[in-house]
Amino acid sequence: MPSLIDLRRRIRAIKSTQQITRAMKTVAASKLRRAQERILGARPFAQRMLQVLNSLAARVDPSAHPLLAQRREQGRVLLIVITADRGLCGSFNSNIVRRAGAVVVESADRQIALGLVGRKGRDYFRRHGFDVWYELVGIFNQLRYGHAQELARVAIERFTSGDSDAVYLVYNEFKSVLQQRVVIERLLPIVKLDLGEETAPSAGVDYLYEPAPEQIFKELLPRHVEVQIYRALLESSAAEHAARMTAMDAASKNSAEMIEQLTLYMNKVRQAAITREIIEVISGAEAL
Amino acid sequence: MALPTHLALELVTPDRAIVHDRVDEVEIPGADGYFGVLPGHTPLLAMLQVGVLWYRKGREKFHLSVAFGFAEVQPDRVTILAQLAERAEEIDVSRAEAARKRAEERMARPVIDMDFERARIALLKSLVRLQAAERARIRT
Q1: Which helix (H) or strand (E) holds A116?
Q2: Residues in chain A within 8 Å Cβ distance of B75
Q3: Which fold has domain B91-139?
Q4: pLDDT confidence tier of residue B112, bands split at 50, 70 and 90
Q5: Do B46 and A52 touch (CB under 8 A)?
Q6: Which of A21, A70, A111, B16 could form a Cys-Cys staple with A76, CB 3.0–4.6 A?
């Protein structure tokens, strides 16, 4: 039977852990609120962008642009994996890493280059001896559009230079506070634009362009890539905070339960000790 | 087809949607110069430069500073995708003023390793912010 002092010590230890998990939960909740606002603010832009791109694609020959060029060989792929910089957020990082790792292992014959965003993913793939082509860590504290621009630049460079035939994004999508979903999305070549849906009553009328349509198209496509990446980064950041919040909430609950059980046990032990002492005293008195 | 009476104006940046409104008139800083849009305008797709954009709703006029992006005009709606955009009343005039001074100083004494283009753009942006704030002030 453990001694009273040991039990007290354990309870105290759990209590201090609980304090930490509670604090982390509160912090994650407030960060989540901000991240959620940002992702909700970013979605309309991405949508509008796609609409404009679609209406433009109907009028310009899309095969002309290198970012749209489909390659026959889909062998060499660049996989951009977005994880968090910190842990303690449940299965958030391990889900992503497992999924991305599976893709890499599955296609051992293909050459897969890894572009890693977030410290956790980088550490994992480095430790396991994967070939890391590009990494970007420590950005989630202050996520800016510039980060997406930088990422888009290197991805486009690699794609147009022919080192990779396709670029994929792997990230956690923020579905709701309780739900994150790992998604794999093709970034390049840009997914065949959907021309059927909603082309306004003026579809027949040709647009005026200022400057020439080809030039606008050339500007618009890289922007589109940037926006896609930016959205993925924001999704991931919101999902990370949501995952951490749920994980810390569960941890706080578990520790509360543990404290309760241990306290009960401790009381039993204490009573047993008292009873024993009384019996000893009484039997001592009787013996006299 | 009857001409639409209003324009559905939508102005979004990568970070947030700024304007979502029914308006009567818009003036946009296009790549080849400012142009005005009234309901029933021919479909148009333009690139934006750094400049002041305003829209009119009834008798009220609203100013914004915008920089880089695209504008899509349809007879009954205007969609603006801007990299940067700020409402005139959100512009921090003293900060823009400081940015203008800094950019001007930098351009005045060319150093070899300086990024002249960046300084020029910074100057342009600060000027436009000041301009937008200025015009909004005159209105009110």
Answers
A1: strand A112-117
A2: 201-202
A3: 1.20.5
A4: low
A5: no
A6: A111
